């Protein structure tokens, strides 16, 4: 379908809350004028959030990279070290992790994202021990971490089912899963970039099990490693179908591949226009997922601001530490005041949110903005140095 009147008719239906098919989504993604696409997506967002449509949210969290040792060797990853590479590989001890949690609480963070490699020795017991220790020391912190890939890995190491692994880490303190590891769910692009990861079907199956056990999650999509437009839409169809059964995906977060320091170096990235079109299509096609997140860590601040006019209602996090996508070249940095200003200059009212998207603080008066520039200057991060050096803490936005 390339006829503009026919495309506008589909846009009008989607903007009014009607469901669109994967083929219609693909036609819109390929052929709808950018402005019309954004306008329809913004209308859909405003309708969903009638009464609070002027607000765009962010969260303060800490990403704790607990190890970079990984057996999975994804081709797009610049973070991992093979188990044999003892010079590059590192793991944090529990005291180090708890100190990072304490800093997070001190700086007003509400969420921990545990993110790391598939370590050959880390089974369910490792996560039980760490999550229960974090919850015991910091019951106020939400552990929004890991994903289906880690569950598949830890269950294999411990010789238990995915369901048992989820039950146990949930009982130990995990609150919800991040959408990590989704990458691209269709078989061809997934095998091309992450041949040792579980299949896309298995990723979704594990998320479905988690949702059935009351553990909700977000969902993500990695754009720009050579997948086709049809494969991008198929990725979303697979997620929409599971969501139709479980309702457990809180958000969808597309982000763009970063090309430095990994085996895919030189492959094309998704352009800003492709990214904005994807945000808009996500808002229109994923009519059963509440939140669409703009990921300005990978696309930049201006594109992040624009995403708020293309259907996104959330701008991710002020992240007190991040080393995975930044290892692959994501260079965008910010602090809390800057993200508040970005949202405001995009014409929206900023609000700090909880993991479950409730508004914790609405910044509707600039005179009352929180003063916390201290968070960029006095805390140390040792993630890339294996726990020895103490460079300044970096504040960056995130994608989960
Ligand atoms: S993306 Fe994750 S699973 Fe893949 S190599 Fe990197 S650390 Fe390992």
From TrEMBL:
Domain Radical SAM core positions: 56-290
Q: Which domain of life is it from?
A: Bacteria
UniProt keyword rRNA-binding, yes or no: no
Q: Does the keyword Acyltransferase apply?
A: no
Q: Which pathway features in its UniProt record?
A: Quinol/quinone metabolism; menaquinone biosynthesis
What cofactor does this chain's UniProt record say it requires? [4Fe-4S] cluster
Write out the catalysed reaction.
dehypoxanthine futalosine + S-adenosyl-L-methionine = cyclic dehypoxanthinylfutalosinate + 5'-deoxyadenosine + L-methionine + H(+)
Name of one Pfam family that matches: CofH_C
What Enzyme Commission number does this protein have? Answer: 1.21.98.1
Q: Which parts of the sequence bind [4Fe-4S] cluster? A: 70, 74, 77
Could you tell me what the cofactor note in this record states? Binds 1 [4Fe-4S] cluster. The cluster is coordinated with 3 cysteines and an exchangeable S-adenosyl-L-methionine.
| InterPro entries, per database record | Aldolase_TIM (IPR013785), CofH/MnqC-like_C (IPR045567), Cyclic_DHFL_synthase_mqnC (IPR022431), Elp3/MiaA/NifB-like_rSAM (IPR006638), F420 (IPR034405), FO_synthase_su2 (IPR020050), rSAM (IPR007197), rSAM_sf (IPR058240)
Assigned keywords, A-Z = 4Fe-4S, Iron, Iron-sulfur, Menaquinone biosynthesis, Metal-binding, Oxidoreductase, S-adenosyl-L-methionine
Question: What SMART domains does the record tag this protein with?
Answer: Elp3
PANTHER family (alphabetical): FO SYNTHASE (COFH), LIPOYL SYNTHASE 2
The protein's role, per its UniProt record:
Radical SAM enzyme that catalyzes the cyclization of dehypoxanthine futalosine (DHFL) into cyclic dehypoxanthine futalosine (CDHFL), a step in the biosynthesis of menaquinone (MK, vitamin K2).
What family is this?
Belongs to the radical SAM superfamily. MqnC family.
Q: What is this protein called?
A: Cyclic dehypoxanthine futalosine synthase
Q: What is the lineage of its organism?
A: Bacteria, Bacillati, Actinomycetota, Actinomycetes, Kitasatosporales
Gene for this chain: mqnC
